[in-house]
Design goal:
This protein has one domain (14-267). α1 crosses α6 (147-185) and α4 (95-133) runs antiparallel to α6. The chain has nine helices and no strands. The protein is 85% helix and 0% strand. By secondary structure, it is an all-alpha fold. The mean pLDDT is 84. The relative contact order is 0.15.
Length: 269
């Protein structure tokens, strides 16, 4: 008699194999996208500027309200939570350091990336997935149009432009929210807040947060597009892959942010 593996061992094996296969698929897709991007950069006439500008509008301009509002509210929350502790030690002015460093170094780029992952990354997966279900991608390949150049590169280029700009915008809105709460709760005036802000925030603190944005943009765009290409032949598959794109994008963004923190610690930034 042939001994069959136990069910739990078989499940572990299948999941491990799926993980390896999925990682291989991601790396292959990233490689194909990188080659397509390099080809477009060598021949700028191949860049499709209209889709790039359209994606800049949908991922950037249309997201100003939600990203600005959430960042403003986060600044208020941070200042409010720190107010009681600072008041106990008569260190009201250090609310500026708390808000500015928390928003500029960590929360603004991270929150902006998470919002864009849920908003634009899911849209990329749904758009490409729907095109695959309706066989539009096969039609493009039939007429000699590269799916990478038409569907992936414009989205990557757009997010590389949009996410750093949105991060700068949310930095300002988050600090503004903290400024309002500091005035209401700690009697720290706007002029005093701005004066302290110049001493509290160094260029390296601002740069460490901004440096994360392009990396987050690449992750969100590539994961969203990859999941779109993984859609099968049903509408249910579109929903499944769209959900996966959001979950995996947010997970990879947070993981990358943790790795950034370790690297910055080593570099003493």
């Amino acid at each position: 008699m042939v001994a069959h593996p136990s069910p739990w061992l078989a499940r572990v094996g299948r999941r491990a194999w799926d993980l390896v296969a999925g990682t291989h698929g991601y790396l292959a897709f990233v490689g194909e996208s990188a080659l397509a991007l390099l080809g477009s950069l060598r021949h700028p006439s191949r860049l499709r500027w209209r889709p790039i500008l359209h994606n800049i509008e949908t991922a950037g301009v249309d997201a100003l309200l939600i990203t600005g509002l959430l960042s403003f509210l986060m600044g208020i929350v941070i200042a409010y939570q720190g107010a009681d502790q600072l008041q106990r030690f008569g260190a009201n002015i250090f609310v500026v350091d708390l808000v500015a460093l928390a928003m500029l170094r960590e929360l603004s780029p991270l929150l902006t990336a998470i919002i864009i992952a849920g908003r634009s990354g899911s849209a990329y997966a749904a758009q490409i997935g729907t095109m695959k279900v309706t066989e539009e991608i096969d039609a493009l390949r039939t007429i000699g149009v590269g799916a990478q150049e038409l569907l992936v590169i414009p989205k990557v280029c757009a997010l590389l432009v949009v996410l750093p700009l949105l991060t700068v915008y949310t930095d300002v809105m988050g600090v503004l929210g903290g400024m309002v709460m500091a005035r209401m709760k700690l009697d720290v005036g706007f002029d005093l807040f701005v004066d302290r802000l110049d001493d509290a925030v160094q260029l390296s603190s601002y740069g460490t947060g901004l440096a994360k944005a392009p990396v987050f943009a690449m992750i969100i765009a590539l994961v969203g597009c990859y999941r779109g290409f993984q859609v099968g032949g049903s509408a249910e598959s579109v929903g499944t892959q769209t959900t996966l794109s959001v979950v995996q994008s947010i997970f990879l963004v947070i993981l990358t942010d943790a790795l950034f923190s370790i690297v910055f610690l080593w570099l003493d930034l």
